[in-house]
Amino acid sequence: NTVAGRTIDLVAANPRWHLYARSRYDLLNQAELDQLLGFGYESCCWAFRLIQRNYRLSSTLPVEQQLILDFEFKGLGTVGGKRIDSYLKNDILGYESKPR
To answer: What's the CA dihedral at 85, 31, 57, 7 to 10 degrees?
Structure first.
């Protein structure tokens, strides 16, 4: 496979703050395919995550940008959470979502 991956798994600065990062690089075409950087905060009553993603489906296509925000009032529900959890679980090795 011509795609090499550099991955930084979920890194927690402390029990409340979280950092997410990922990078994939195509060695054959010498192009960055996917970059993700984000952070989150969690308290007893609410939580949020903000993720910036730059990606391309092929090294010959232009870079697309995506900004994802998840905000949750615990016990009431979440906006955007399932989408972010699914993305992080599929793309960051070792990521597991916390029970809400």
So the answer is: -20
Contact 97, 80 (CB under 8 A): no
Whole-angstrom distance, CA of residue 52 vs CA of residue 84: 11
pTM for the model stands at 0.70
Rg over alpha carbons for the chain, rounded to the nearest Å, is 15
- Give the three-class secondary structure for 50: strand
Q: Which residues contact 65 (CB under 8 A, 6 or more apart)?
A: 52, 53, 54
Which two three-digit tokens encode residue 65?
A: 């940008």
**How far is C-alpha 55 from the chain's CA centre?**
12
Which tokens belong to 29?
């075409």
Structure confidence by residue, pLDDT tens digits, 16-62? 888 888 888 777 777 788 888 899 998 999 989 899 988 888 778 88
